[in-house]
Amino acid sequence: MQRRFWIKTGKVLIVTLLMLTAFGSSELKAADWRALTDFRGAWLFTVGDDPAWARPETDTGDWDRLNAPGDWERYYPGYNGYAWYRKTFNLKAIPKTKALTLFLGYIDDVDEVFINGQKVGQTGQFFPNYQTAYSVERRYVVPASLLKESGNVIAVRVYDEYQYGGIIRADRFGLYYDREQEMLRVDLSGNWKFSIDNFGDNHSVGLDDSGWDELFVPMSWESQGYPEYDGKAWYRKRFTMPTSLQGQDLFLVLGKIDDFDKVYLNGKLIGRVEELEQYSRFRRGNAYNLIRAYEIPKGLIKAKNLISVEVDDPMGVGGIYEGPVGIMTGDAARELLNKHRWSSSNNWNFSFWDLFRIVE
């Protein structure tokens, strides 16, 4: 059930946005994807395992050719273990955005993905802490700065424990651009400061965060050096607001966050999504699928600004993991939210006012 929360002036007014349409059903509307390249067809392939195979300059002269998607046991019957896929690709043009999305379908069992030698994601766990992820669709955020118009190399390391193996199947299979990013007036995807340590004032404008890690947003923290972390974490991002936008009806859009969040702008709480188990219509686990769009109170935005986000992830994937991320006008934000209506398993569709709560 979709929930949208934002702040009004004075007290913190948390608004849950739900419209109940009985007897109706709808799918979760996907982002507005446009394919930039399709990876279907022949890939270079070899069994075995060597970290050097992630490097673009690797000599692959003796590698086999194998079509993907499709399990490798069509060509290597009975093989279980490590193998690598590689492919060189070109792009006609790179969109003027900070991030693209890589779709690789379903991989049996564990994978690690590199583009131009840089790791962009991993799903499942290799030994010694092996964990299969054969049923999870692979989708990774790729910083646009990693790409060039020609001579890009994608390398996929795969481990298969038993039966089948490799890039099994895919609906989307390639690099895609989310045209919803064009709705942003200020694109805030990119490197954010990140910490799992609570210094007591993590939302303070004056806090020195120069020693914090840097993570790419949007992208899960598991794929960026925190593979098994569950709990609270903090993001911070400083940005400059164009003078032409100051004073307008604006929303801070943070895409999808797993699971719960509190969002501050210049030290002031402007919105949050939290567990509402006391309300029977809310089921645990819905929060990760919600688009966050928080209204920016008039007068709060300045030329120089700080966004700070506290994320609480009880289990599984964590963090600001999917975009768009940035500043939108009110009209654009409402259009975005209207596209992303969530349909529950009992085929009831929600997207209008349902619940209001005042938080002192």
TrEMBL record:
Keywords: Hydrolase, Signal. GO terms for molecular function: hydrolase activity. InterPro entries: Galactose-bd-like_sf, GH2_Domain-Containing. It comes from the Bacteria. The keyword Repeat does not apply. Residues 1-30 form the signal peptide. PANTHER family: BETA-GALACTOSIDASE (PTHR42732), BETA-MANNOSIDASE (PTHR42732:SF1). This is Glycoside hydrolase. The lineage of its organism: Bacteria, Pseudomonadati, Bacteroidota, Bacteroidia, Marinilabiliales.
